[in-house]
Amino acid sequence: MLEELAAFVAAAGLEPGSRLPAERELALRLKVGRSTIREALKRWQALGVVEMRKGSGTYLKAPLGDDAVHLSITVRLKQDSLLRALEVRRALEAEAAAIAARRATPDDLAHIRDCLERMEAVHLRYGEAPAEDWEFHLSIYRATGNPLFLQLVSALHDALFSFFTNPLNQPGFASRSFPLHRELFEAIAARDPETARAKALAILAITEEDLRAARHAP
Questions:
Q1: What is the largest CA-CA distance in the chain?
Q2: Is residue 161 within a helix (H) or strand (E), and if so which, with residue range?
Q3: Known PROSITE patterns for this protein (predicted)?
């Protein structure tokens, strides 16, 4: 729906500051329900593309030219959303790694090791292991002994899990971070909070580099 809406905006020649047609008119033109239009506009508002003014209408804030529709929707907007989510992931994951290094029980460490080895085996065979990578990181959250971490991760599941599914369809997305997962486990097992935090941040730094590179990919 976002691509169709972007194509309509581009075809209409709307510029930043322009008022979009009412939801009813957009729904008729795009042949969808008003609720579909409303949800699409809310997503655009969250990404800073439009401003929805109560009692006035919806106004375009970012340009969407004919030659930029797909870039804006499939790369720029999604990339911006992912980078915002990555800030939250960085805050949670780095601290969880450090806490796990201090608190993990022998059973916790055994579980993290099992998850790591499953991830490594799948990655070696297929070149990626999204589900196993996710489980590895969840095992570290569990090892903090603080259930609020898992509650937060559960609430943010859609935003966080998207990182493990190559969200921008890039060849080798974040694959450079793969060896660092074992180093992260070793730091936790060695009861070294600062190194564990540094390894978690190093993994996420590679993720951010690859996300930002997507905008310039051919």
A1: 62
A2: helix 157-161
A3: HTH_GNTR (PS50949)
Residue 57 near residue 19 (C-beta atoms within 8 A): yes
Residue that wins the pLDDT comparison between 216 and 196: 196
The domains located in the chain, with CATH, are: 2-64 (1.10.10.10), 83-216 (1.20.120.530)
Cα–Cα distance for residue pair 214/168, rounded to 1 Å: 7
User: Taken in order 84, 150, 95, 116, is the CA torsion positive or negative?
Assistant: negative
Tell me the pTM.
0.67
Q: What is the model's pLDDT at position 111?
A: 98
For residues 74-88, one letter each, b for 16 or more C-beta atoms within 10 angstroms of the residue's C-beta and e for the rest, the string is bbbbbbbbbeebbee
